[in-house]
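so my prof wants the structure for this chain in the tokens format not the other one, which i didnt know existed until like an hour ago. anyway here's the sequence
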Amino acid sequence: MTNALLFLTGIIAVFTTEAKARDEISGPVVAEILRVIDGDTLLVEAQPWPQQKMEVYVRIRGIDAPELKSKCERIREAAFDAHRALEALTATSRKIQLTHISGDKYFGRIVADVVLPDGRNAGHDLLLAGLVQTYDGGRKPQQVCDTN
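here's what i got, hopefully its the right format
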């Protein structure tokens, strides 16, 4: 089993009643950011229980950042802007809290709200800055490369 799957299985086992009701764990789960992957994904070391730590990829709930590997230069630049902004948001403290935790459609990562040390929601801040779009987990709209 992957670390993320073990993480979710363990969390669900601990909070069985709540998980059945919503298929989501409310948290908070304390985590330390190991690396910012892109504008909407982090690699963290989460601590779901005392003396238990695991690495897991976290997709920030409710947002979608432009793709770093886009063929379009304009989209790649926007992706780097979102990536740098997420790094800046998390630069002062690598400690965060994960809330509203659930499985992702892709194995190996989870989806969660990322709460910064000052209580702000990282996804909300990125949306307010205009660096990401809202995302509900469905099909993503095709990004058009504007060459002008």
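also thought this was worth mentioning. The beta strands are 29-38, 41-49, 52-60, 63-64, 95-103, 109-115, 133-134.
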